Amino acid sequence: MSSDNQWSADEDEGQLSRLIRKSRDSPFVPIGIAGFVTVVSYGLYKLKYRRDQKMSIHLIHMRVAAQGFVVGAVTIGNFLNLYLMFLCF
């Protein structure tokens, strides 16, 4: 077996350093994460006052809203990055 494919702990980056690196590459990722946490927190808070709505329906709505926020933030970030890239040329 070749030594090129061996895993080394020195080469592994931590989760925090990976998040910081991805934040520099795409600044809308942390915005998407913050929006996701906000939507889920609000949804869990509203879980108490859902009246006659079923729990599964409430959780599905909360999941769709959170995923929509993340996808929207990443999409806007990519289009902005693409726009800025074409401006430079």
From TrEMBL:
Gene3D superfamilies: 6.10.140.1320. GO terms for cellular component: mitochondrial membrane. It holds the Pfam family HIG_1_N. Keywords: Membrane, Transmembrane, Transmembrane helix. GO terms for biological process: mitochondrial respirasome assembly. Residues 1-89 form the HIG1 domain. Coiled coil: none annotated. The keyword Membrane applies. InterPro entries: Hypoxia_induced_domain, RCF1. It is found in: Mitochondrion membrane. The keyword Phosphoprotein does not apply. The chain crosses the membrane at residues 27-45, 66-86. This is HIG1 domain family member 1C. It comes from Sciurus carolinensis. The lineage of its organism: Eukaryota, Metazoa, Chordata, Craniata, Vertebrata.
